[in-house]
Amino acid sequence: MNKTFSIDCMGGDYGPQVVLDAAFHTLKEFKDLNLIFFLDKESKVSLDNLRIFSDRFEIRRCEKFLKADDSLLSMLKNAKFSTMKAALQSVSDKESSAVFTVGHTGPYFILAKKILGFIKGVNRIPLAVMIPSSNGSKVLTDIGANLECSATDLYKFGLLGKEFIKSVLSIDNPGISLINVGHEENKGTEELRNSASLFRKKIGNDFKGFIDADKIFTCEADVIVTDGFSGNCISKACEGTSRFIMSKFNKYWIVRKLISLFSDSADRYNGAVLLGINGLSIKAHGSSKEPSLVNALRTTYRFASKADLLMKNLNSIDFESNELQ
Fold first, then answer.
1. What pLDDT score does 78 carry?
2. In the chain, is it the N or the C terminus that has fewer CB atoms within a 10 Å radius of its CB?
3. What is the pLDDT of residue 1?
C-alpha cells in the first residue's frame, strides 16, 4: 500500500489551518503515513506543530482554490489551477493512494470523474457514508451526488455499496435494502419497484426489501440505498435533530453529557467516499472542526488500507448481466 494521501486543505468553513491541525494528530497516530498538503498561494498557515514530521509531509502551493460562495461556472473556470484539481491529479499520477477534501461537493464530483474516471459499467457515482447501527456499522448511499435516479442507478449503487462493505468491513454476504414509503412490495414509485426486481434477480436473499427511513439504523441490511435527494435530506435531518435537541436541553447537565457522547459518535463517521471511480476519494463535511476532521482522516486511512481489495472487488462487478430490459 502506498501510504501517502493528498489533502486539499481549501474550501472548508474554518480555513486550511484546522485541516493542518487535524493532520498533525493523524501523522502522530499512523507512523507509516505521509501527506501532501495542497494550499493556495495566498493562505497563511502555521506549520509549527507539523515540523516534527518534516520528513513525512510536503506543502504544494496552487494558484487558486474553489470557494463555496462562487458559482459552479466560476469554479469550473478556476478548476485547472486549483488545489482540488492538483490533489486529484496526484492520485491519478500514482503519487498518492487517496485524496481527501473539505471543499465544495459539486466541482469535486466533476473533477473526480474527469481526472480519475469511472470503473467499467459505471456512469453515475454515488456518495456513500458509514453510519452507526445497532450491530456495528453500515453504509448509506447515495447522500447527495445524484438527485434523480433510475431503477438501474439504484441497483448499481447497491452493488457498489455491497462490494465496498465487503472489502472494508469483511462482511461476506451483505444485505441491501431500499428506502421507500413502506415495506410492502407494491409501495413506492415505479423506479423503486423496478430496482427491487433487479436486486431480487441479481442477489436473491441478500436483498432485504424495502424499509422506512426510521429503520435505517436498526434494519438487518448492511447497505441502505436511496436517491441522492432523499439521502441528503435524511443526513441533514439527522444532523439538525441533534442540534435541536442540544439547543433545547443544553441547560441540563445529564442531557449535555448524553448529547456530547452522541456527537462524538457521529463525528467518528465523518468522511464519505465516492464509489465507482478509479481511485479512493474522500469528502469530509465543509463545516468540520478539528475533532471531526481527525476522525475523517482516520476513516481515510482505514479505507486506504483496504484500497487494493476494494478496487479489485469493485472492478469485478458484473453490472450488465441483469440489466432491466
1. 73
2. C
3. 55
d(CA 155, CA 162): 11
Say if residues 23 and 33 touch (Cβ distance below 8 Å): no
Regarding whether 38 and 68 lie in a shared domain, the answer is yes
259 and 160 part of one domain: yes
Low-confidence stretches of the chain (pLDDT < 50) are: 264-266, 324-325
Query: How many CB atoms are closer than 10 A to CB 24?
Result: 19
Q: Please, which residues have CB within 8 angstroms of residue 95's CB and are 6 or more apart in sequence?
A: 4, 6, 36
The DSSP bridge pattern shows strands 98-101 and 127-133 to be: unpaired
Other beta carbons less than 10 A from residue 53's beta carbon: 18
Strands, DSSP E only, in the chain? 4-8, 34-40, 57-62, 98-101, 127-133, 136-141, 176-179, 207-211, 223-225, 272-274, 280-283
**Residue pointed to by grid coordinates 458484473:** 318
| Same-domain status, 130 and 50 | no
> Where do we find the cell 474516471?
117
Residue 201 sits in the same domain as residue 132: yes
pTM of the full predicted structure? 0.87
* 16/147 same-domain check: no
